[in-house]
Amino acid sequence: MSDATLDTPATWPTVSVIVCTHLRPSTLPRALDSVITQSYRDFECIVIHDGPPDDDTKRICEEYATHFERVDLPFIFTSTDEASGYYCVPRNTAICHARGDYIAGLDDDNAWAPRTLEVLVAAMEEGLVWPDFAYGRIRYCFADGARKVHRNRTLPCGVGGHQPWDDMAMARLATGPMANFIDSSSFIAAKGAYWRLDVATGSMFNPAYRRFGDWELLARATHYAGWRGKAVDEVVLDYYWGTPGQLQLTRPLNEQVRGEVVR
Asked: Is residue 243 domain-resident?
């Protein structure tokens, strides 16, 4: 780790927000703006860069450290020693040092809705039996200049369908990554659930996965570590197509979203 502040806890927030980034100073401010403006305020924000950060990312994080301090929210910027090429390694690293009871992740090219943490924490804590994770709906958006077709298939646009957590949801996850309906930036999980997963299967996010890390984690967690899920019928994430270095993957044909063909 490049920043010892992760090892010097000053507060114990309910949620640790982990923003993974890699050489995307053009989109990182949008992600951080969506974090700092959350209606729920009991959280810390950990920005972790995959590998040594560039100067622009350092500058942005220095600016946002000041912004977060002004509103009394803990902000930590750190990095891994080497770039892994995806978010699995940096997210695992940050989880190990996170101080919150819950872990919520956000990629640097996406943005949360203003009430994301509020509704996801409420879902985790309402009822007699608390789930291990909760997730919400996704709104698919296009970055400026982004193509709307990938590999001859239309990319989704608009709000995705609502998939309650039930036996059908578990079966859908088990069929494969192209049937995934929970993005890494659209769910929150108990920190203790990650420890149980690590004990049961030998890893949290699987660093061997260059793609589909969110699907692989939840499929493994639900089928081998007994994670219980809970769905929130509210949009919690704006997912942007067309950012640099993005792995563009089309959704299943039965996904309830619309698309537009570029001609």
From this structure: no
pLDDT in tens, the chain (263 residues): 344 445 445 568 999 999 999 999 999 999 999 999 999 999 999 999 999 999 999 999 999 999 999 999 999 999 998 888 788 999 999 999 999 999 999 999 999 999 999 999 999 999 877 899 999 999 998 877 666 666 666 777 889 889 999 999 999 999 999 889 999 999 999 999 999 999 999 999 999 887 889 999 999 999 999 999 999 999 999 999 876 555 444 433 334 444 443 32
Nearest partner of 18 among 225, 245, 194, 199, judged by Cα: 194
**188 belongs to a structural domain:** yes
3-state secondary structure at position 162: coil
Residue 161 DSSP code: P
Q: ∠193-21-235 over CA atoms, to 5°?
A: 60
Residue 193 covered by a domain: yes
- 175 contacts: CB under 8 Å, gap ≥ 6: none
Range of the domain at 12: 4-136+169-174+182-232
Task: Quote the crossing angle between the two packed helices 28-36 and 55-70, to the nearest 10°.
Answer: 10
39 located within any domain: yes
Q: How many domains does the chain have?
A: 1
> The CATH number of the domain where 90 resides is what?
3.90.550.10
Instruction: Provide the whole-model pTM.
Output: 0.87
Alpha-carbon distance values, 86 to 73, 82, 126, 206 (Å): 27, 11, 33, 11
Token pair recorded at residue 213: 């890390």
